[in-house]
Amino acid sequence: KIQGSAVKEFLFSQALASGKSRFEKQQFGCGPFWDAIVMKKIQALVGGRVKYMASGSAPLSAEIQIFIQSCFNCPCRQGYGCTETTGGSAIAVTEDNTTAQVGPPTSVTYLRLRDWEEGNYLFKNGQRGEILLGGPSVCSGYFIDPKNPDDSIIKKNQQDFVTIDNVRYFCTGDIGEIDALGRIKVIDRKKDLFKGATGEYVALSKVEAALKLSKYCEIPCVLGRIGESSVIALISPAVPELIALAKSLQEPSEDALELCTKPAIVKALSEALTQQCKKAGLIAFEIPKAFRFVLASDATPAWSPDNDFLTSTMKLKRPVIAKAFKNEIDAAYASLK
């Protein structure tokens, strides 16, 4: 949402509408007119000469991709890869605006899909399966100290790396799909699937991607507990929006930690996040049935690489979070009884 007069807000919304229309025609930017009167200042924030943007590490929503291309007048493409494969192993083609895909493999990458029967992802059912990345960019394995070998690392090397037809592959744990044009879509993650009591699988990262689109959400962590029928979500809220919401509900306070536990605030946030999930197209069993809102003691995000709840690439350490926030998780599930 633009900060400024009603005229500025109207012009910005019209520019974005033009950008969305151009996006659907396989173009980028808002067009010369809107660039000149609206977007030029935004483009100047990054130098004004950006020709290409790439996104990795986490899924890029269609909404954000359209927004970036509209504002910065350049293509924004998703890439895919892992530390173990020396970074980028696939990247979307510059001329292709199609969302939710990471393009074909790079020229040095072999890609295979391996059946994962437990999750019912089978190659015969629409070219789906676990993504294996192979070729010269794949590392030799995780380092084992010859003076003090770690059995868990030895086992991990045996599980995560395989050789097929003389090609060494890294088993990513990601579930992929290859479409008719040879583009890869990352649709799930083996470790991030929750199987509910009714047997339905919920992709936790998919739910988190939907929650991230809410202005109230800084970092989401969706969790499921064995034996339960639904998932719950721990949310590290966006503090400025949290304070603004409290003010709008006639409960003004600058104490973000206190606001995270006020019933009226929790209710309003939960309703807003549930609506965001529905807007993103999640079906009923995928939507968290309870939310808890958490921050660090200094009202900064609850999870960061510094406190060891996120990896250096900003990925959730879900088991670590689940252990540290057991009381909040217990309370969330108790509220459903």
Automatic annotation (TrEMBL):
Is Nucleotide-binding given among the entry's keywords? Answer: yes
Single GO cellular component term: lipid droplet
Q: Does the keyword ATP-binding apply?
A: yes
The record's InterPro entries line, in alphabetical order, gives: AMP-dep_synth/lig_dom (IPR000873), ANL_N_sf (IPR042099)
Q: Which keywords does the record carry?
A: ATP-binding, Ligase, Nucleotide-binding
GO BP: any one term: long-chain fatty-acyl-CoA metabolic process
Task: Tell me where in this chain the AMP-dependent synthetase/ligase domain is found.
Answer: 33-143
Which PANTHER family does this UniProt record tie to the protein? Answer: ACYL-COA SYNTHETASE LONG-CHAIN, ISOFORM J (PTHR43272:SF83), LONG-CHAIN-FATTY-ACID--COA LIGASE (PTHR43272)
State the family named in the UniProt similarity comment for this chain: Belongs to the ATP-dependent AMP-binding enzyme family.
This chain belongs to the protein called AMP-dependent synthetase/ligase domain-containing protein
Q: Which organism is it from?
A: Aureoumbra lagunensis
